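Notes from hallway chat w/ T.B., transcribed later so I don't forget. T.B. wanted the structure written out for a chain they're using in a teaching module, and asked if we could keep both sequence and structure tokens in one place. Agreed to drop them here.
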Amino acid sequence: MLVDQLKALIAPEVESLGFILWGIEMDAYSADTGSMTLRIFIDHEEGISIDDCQEVSRAVGAILDVEDPISGAYSLEVSSPGVNRRVFNAVQAKALEGFEVKVQLHQATENNRRRFKGVIISVDNDDVFVKTEEDEEIRFDFHNVDKMRVVPKF
């Protein structure tokens, strides 16, 4: 998978700059722009500034220019995951236990749910347990997640 290849390619550089590679998203090719968008999310315990994004963009852009893993035109965006951050893996979900999330699954759970909102109760390996707004407990394998985002509290 291209995202895994990109992660292996750029993670060491992002980490050497002192940042965490939070995740990678690729938008489909757009006929309007004639390219696709590659989004790289970085994090740091002290937050992320525009200068941090520019620094990582230059470093990652240089690697992508040399290695050329993406065929065709693309635009590179580097940003913070933000307060409504997407959760890309079970390790991140584990760190977010107690937080409210919106979940969209590829396939419905045994509760016949594909979309729901609730609080992450626990994560055990790839098994995620969420208590929904309706007070229903749902268990799912993280590999079944299409998208999961933190619901920010203000």
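Follow-up for T.B.: The two ends are 37 Å apart (CA to CA). Might be a good example for the class.
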